[in-house]
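This section describes the prediction task in plain terms. A model, or a person checking by hand, is given the sequence of a single protein chain and must write out its three-dimensional structure as a string of tokens. No templates, partner chains or ligands are provided. The sample shown here is typical of the held-out split.
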Amino acid sequence: MGLSTNCWKYLVLIFNVLFAMSAVVLFGASGFLIYKLFIYRHFIGVNVEYPAILLLMMAIITCSIAWIGWRTTKSMHQIHVIITGILIVLVVVIEFSCFVWAMVVWDNVEIDIKSTLSHYFEHTLTKTDNTDVDVIRWDRIQVKFECCGVSGPSDYTSKGHVPFSCCGQGPLDSLHKPYAADCSMLYQRGCGKPLHGYARQQVLMVAMTALAAAILQSTGIFCTFFLAQSIKERRRASIRNSTSIRDGNFASPDDSLLAAPTAPAPTLPKY
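The expected answer:
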């Protein structure tokens, strides 16, 4: 029984090391995905980022639980091991909930992007300064995704002309050709679909990351509770062993003291 308990102990210790490593990987992955969504927050909205933010928070919490699990496993206190197992269950449940939430966002992201993008486009049309920060954002997004407006060049009808970024030439972007007055090839597609596809791809990555973390970290639940059960059985075995030893000490008492006393040897009378 002792060997079995030690085996579970070392398995749980190894799991806690892997648990902490997965938290570090989860922190880096979720932080990168938040960045990928954050840079286009004006076009796709901030609601799309919330599942990734929750995943980042769970990575920080997971590091703390891994440290707690390491300490409680070394102490071999059953109640502490059980509490650690419950905390791991909560982490796995929240990560799986994050996966479900991300899939819901993935399914509804087109509606959110369409409203956010249209509102931001109408706001930018009112700007007359080509160096305005909102105008520059639209120039860069149209050059990057090779698009024009929300649904096409016709969105600029009210303004009377299309920006040269619809031809792939951004006035303030040094990575592209200099600003020119000639626009020989105009992008015909709008930016709604490319941004929609980009956001869906990033949110899907968030969902898959959350699902993978939940599946991998769920293995620790079984190891932790098996360790708690093994500690309980070892304690019972120790109590049974102590009881049997105590009973053995009183099972066969020494009856030599209860034997009849022997008569003293006869002696001659003294005169």
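For orientation: Residues 78-125 form the longest helix (48 residues).
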